[in-house]
Design brief:
This protein has about 250 residues and is of the alpha+beta class. The protein contains six helices and 13 strands. Helix 4 packs across helix 6 and helix 5 packs across helix 6. It starts with 14 loop residues before the first strand and ends in a 6-residue tail after the last strand.
Length: about 250
């Protein structure tokens, strides 16, 4: 990869290739791309699955964006669910670009798993890999990505297997992430009931018929308008204490 004249060689020269809004492939210097909205770009490579492969690719409907976001493994899917449940996340794209750099011997490239935009406007580039599956070439790619992100003013995270109890709870709530689960009258009543913290099922019954109130209750928990205590250490259940989120009001 040729380095243009005038580029500071004390830092690795990095280019990005991506698909623009006109569905055209572009390749540009990293520093020309720092303000690009990569949370809106399509993946730079397809998501495929075939019999016998260890990975299982697919598409997840994200409540954050109202669109499908791709994943290449169950671990990526789990991390995607956790990102989608984070109220500080406002945009998510999978495989947003290729990073191109030269390691001194040959040109290398790496496609990070996700690009995330947060409510404060900051960007996070995320790679998903279990600790025990990181090979030397992965270490090099993650380090090159970290350095590139630092140049661009983005944060870089390499995340692994999430905590099991929290993941189980968030996956359950994700079943109710679609706006169709929100019934405004039931939501208003639930917010009133849980202004005083109390058990999940008893509060749902107080708010009305549980078949009508529970989907909305789980949706409010997904959106974190209501908060369930100890989700990181206990599975969600009838006696889980639910309350308004900090600063919330019925």
């Amino acid at each position: 990869m040729a380095v243009p004249a005038g580029v500071e060689l004390a830092r690795p020269y990095v280019e990005l290739s991506y698909i623009d809004a006109a569905c055209e492939r572009q390749r540009r210097p990293l520093l020309d791309c720092v303000t690009a909205r990569f949370e809106d770009t399509p993946p730079v490579r397809p998501f495929r699955w075939s019999r016998g492969e260890r990975h299982f690719a697919g598409w997840y409907w994200a409540a954050t964006t109202g669109q499908h976001v791709g994943f290449e493994s169950w671990l990526e899917r789990d991390r995607l669910v956790l990102m989608d449940s984070d109220p500080e996340v406002v945009g998510i794209a999978s495989q947003p670009f290729w990073l191109h750099w030269h390691d001194g011997k040959r040109e290398r490239r790496h496609a990070p798993d996700y690009f995330v935009r947060r409510t404060d406007g900051s960007a996070v580039v995320i790679d998903v890999r279990a600790d025990e599956r990181i090979e030397p070439k992965d270490v090099e790619a993650f380090e090159a990505t970290r350095v590139a992100c630092a140049q661009a003013g983005w944060r870089f995270e390499r995340v692994g297997v999430p905590e099991a109890v929290m993941l189980a709870n968030v996956r359950w709530l994700s079943r109710y992430r679609h706006p169709r689960c929100l019934h405004r009258r039931a939501a208003n009543r639930l917010l009133e009931v849980f202004a005083t913290p109390g058990p999940l099922l008893a509060g749902a019954d107080t708010a009305g018929d549980r078949l009508a109130t529970l989907p909305t209750l789980f949706h409010l928990l997904w959106r974190q308008e209501l908060v369930a205590e100890d989700l990181s250490v206990e599975l969600l259940g009838p006696r889980t204490v639910v309350r308004l989120s900090d600063g919330g009001a019925p």
